[in-house]
Write a structure and sequence with these properties.
The protein is α/β, with parallel strands linked by helices and 180 residues long. The chain is 21% helix and 21% strand. The longest helix has 12 residues.
Length: 180
């Protein structure tokens, strides 16, 4: 798929500094429970932003508990022990469940309207739907500029992102049903 190829090329030139813009955005949400993710394959790596956020409040990472189920989130610390979890993602060795209010969401591609294309399992869509039914929940897509696409194959169950942060910019979107 072209989106994976674009991401791979961008990843080849990646640096730790690319998380700086994400850290700037997250500074406005200090103290709120935050979910990051452990980058896999050619995903842009949010670890440096997660380390900074952990100095101000709880940080967790997603854990896949079963196929076609929402994600759960286990507390993460920069020096905490990690193990291999399902689908190759690293997860904390000790389960300590919390619910985030802010999620950094990985993606394969995004568009200028706040839509994302993931790996196709629907984990984040189910999770965001469940969390948003309980309380306001902010979804921040984190990607390379090169991952932007003109159009994505969308499904009715897809959950929109509130922001998309790339190495060079921040795209903000109005919540569904409101004007930007």
């Amino acid at each position: 798929m072209a989106a994976f190829a674009r991401r791979a090329v961008a990843h080849a030139g990646a640096t730790e500094a690319q998380a700086a813009k994400l850290s700037e955005v997250l500074a406005g949400y200090r103290g709120r429970p935050l979910s990051g993710y452990m980058a896999m394959r050619t995903e842009i790596d949010p670890t440096q932003a997660m380390v900074q956020a952990a100095a101000h409040g709880p940080v967790c990472v997603p854990v896949i508990v079963a196929k076609a189920q929402p994600l759960r989130f286990s507390c993460w610390t920069p020096d905490g022990a990690m193990i291999d979890g399902p689908f190759g993602a690293r997860v904390p060795a000790v389960e300590d469940w919390i619910e985030p209010e802010v999620l950094i969401v990985p993606l394969v591609a995004f568009d200028a309207r706040g839509n994302r294309l993931g790996y196709g399992g629907g984990f984040y869509d189910r999770t965001l739907e469940r969390l948003r039914a309980k309380r306001p929940t902010l979804a921040i897509g984190f990607a390379f500029d090169a991952q932007e696409a003109d159009a994505l194959p969308l499904e009715p169950t897809d959950q929109p992102l509130d922001l998309i942060v790339t190495e060079s910019r921040v795209l903000r979107f109005a919540p569904a049903g409101t004007e930007a």
